[in-house]
Amino acid sequence: MKKVVTLVFLCTGMLISSGQESDPWSLGIGVNIVDNSGSRFDELLNIKENWNISRLLKATIEKRFEYDFGVEISFSMNSFTRGKVINSVVNQEKVNYFAVDVMVKNYFSNYLEDARHAKFALYIVGGWGGNFFNATINETLNIGIGLNIKLGTYLWLNFQTLGKFSIDENTPGNANHLQHSTSVIFWL
Question: For the whole model, what pTM was predicted?
Answer without folding.
Answer: 0.78
